[in-house]
Write a structure and sequence with these properties.
The protein has about 325 residues and is an all-alpha fold. It is about 70% helix and about 0% strand. Helix 8 (about 95-120) packs antiparallel against helix 10 (about 135-145), helix 11 (about 150-160) runs antiparallel to helix 12 (about 165-170) and helix 20 (about 300-315) runs antiparallel to helix 21 (about 320-330). The two termini are about 40 Å apart.
């Protein structure tokens, strides 16, 4: 944990470049937040810095990226990006493939968890998204900075004679899930993440865990028994029919893929399995007409949330430019 804490976690090169070049006067807060949330390492860095004694002397834990952006400011986040090494510069060979696989699973789990949280009316789906995104932070950090130990563990895993957990314990003396928990506590990444590592029985923790179980299960195929078991857990939480739940989960997997691919994570996107029918859609030379987009129906709940966020930042003496940005962003949404 100390070794990794002394390093800077890598981010996707495109993510760092996009955030570095972003102009505070032109980029809405939601766009910057989306760029950060695309990458687990950057999400961890921003939350870690926002919750440090330097920027949070009141020890009021920030659990979401949107609040962290307001606290740190655009310029500070751009400077942070300049100091962080990129995946392409640090990783080669098999260890990079392991990291990409972990990131793909985390993207998928986070997308499923946030959608489920929204469906259940959770008070902060973004906090659930961040928690699911960082749940396997220790695994990702190890494949970045494990060095020769990472190579040795890779050989053990390729041998296939022992389970990943047993291989980790034999080689390292601890499980990588323990490393994730330790980093979460050391970096103050949020109480929900700590609750999850403590196997709390809260409904919000269950959302995160069931999303990760599904993301791991689909790697064995969408028709596998483990996927059926994960789908049953989603049904138990939502009360949906099996057919409707299956359709929703498959659509969310595609959305997670599109999200990762759109932000430069092509390799991670390819690690998110899709059902056979969706993985290779039939090609057609016929140009489909563009759908007619109707004006959205106003969402009173969203409006109230925006007003509360604005009021919160007025109380915290945020600068006028940030408040104007938040008001315009709220009007736009």
């Amino acid at each position: 944990m100390k070794r990794i804490s002394d390093e800077e976690l890598p981010v996707l090169a495109r993510t760092a470049k996009a955030i570095t070049l972003a102009q505070a006067e032109q980029s809405p807060m939601s766009e910057l937040g989306s760029l950060i949330l695309q990458d687990p390492a950057m999400t961890a860095q921003v939350l870690r810095l926002a919750n440090s004694a330097l920027y949070s002397p009141s020890h009021d834990t920030l659990n979401t990226i949107s609040r962290a952006i307001v606290l740190l400011g655009f310029n500070r986040i751009r400077s942070l990006c300049l100091t962080i090494a990129t995946v392409e510069e640090l990783l080669v060979g098999h260890t990079r493939e392991r990291l990409v696989a972990e990131m793909g699973r985390s993207f998928h789990a986070a997308a499923q968890a946030r959608a489920l949280a929204e469906q259940l009316g959770d008070e902060s789906p973004e906090e659930i998204f961040v928690t699911a995104l960082l749940l396997r932070l220790g695994e990702m950090a190890f494949w970045c900075f494990g060095g020769t130990l990472a190579d040795e563990l890779e050989c053990k895993l390729l041998g296939g004679s022992v389970t990943p957990g047993k291989a980790e314990s034999q080689l390292l003396g601890f499980r990588l899930t323990q490393l994730s928990a330790a980093l979460c506590k050391e970096w103050t990444l949020g109480p929900l993440l700590q609750e999850t590592f403590q196997h709390s029985d809260s409904p919000r923790v269950r959302i995160v865990l069931v999303a990760h179980r599904l993301a791991a299960a689909v790697e064995q195929g969408w028709e596998s028994q483990t996927v059926e078991e994960a789908v049953a857990e989603f049904i138990a939480l939502t009360g949906s029919t099996p057919e409707a739940m299956r359709t929703a989960l498959e659509e969310r997997a595609q959305a997670a893929r599109n999200f990762a691919r759109a932000h430069g994570g092509n390799a991670a996107a390819e690690r998110i399995p899709l059902p056979a029918a969706e993985a290779a859609p039939p090609t057609s030379s016929v140009q489909e007409p563009a759908p007619i987009v109707e004006s959205p129906t106003p969402n009173p709940s969203l409006q109230l949330t925006i007003l509360r966020e604005i009021a919160l930042h007025i109380d915290s003496c945020a600068d006028v430019q940030t408040l104007i940005t938040m008001v315009l962003e709220g009007i736009h949404r």
